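Problem: given the chain below (81 residues), write out its structure.
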Amino acid sequence: MRRDPSLRLNDAGRNVLRLLDACAVVVRDRGRVLDTVPAHCRRPLAELAEGYAGVWHLLAQELRDRDVSDTDLAQPSSLGA
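Solution.
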């Protein structure tokens, strides 16, 4: 996706790419993150992570829904036949 000009060449697309990069850092360095977060921040960070996970889940569902809608629009309708 980093090479896709439709993402790279506009602010919103670059923000998406930055978000994905940040998530990749968490995936890659999860152990370091766990070791770095102080005890008093663990619960609030866990709650934030769960909240963001819910938002990502909602985004994934909305992307799938749009993909299905786009696919449906591209299909010729048999209603007019």
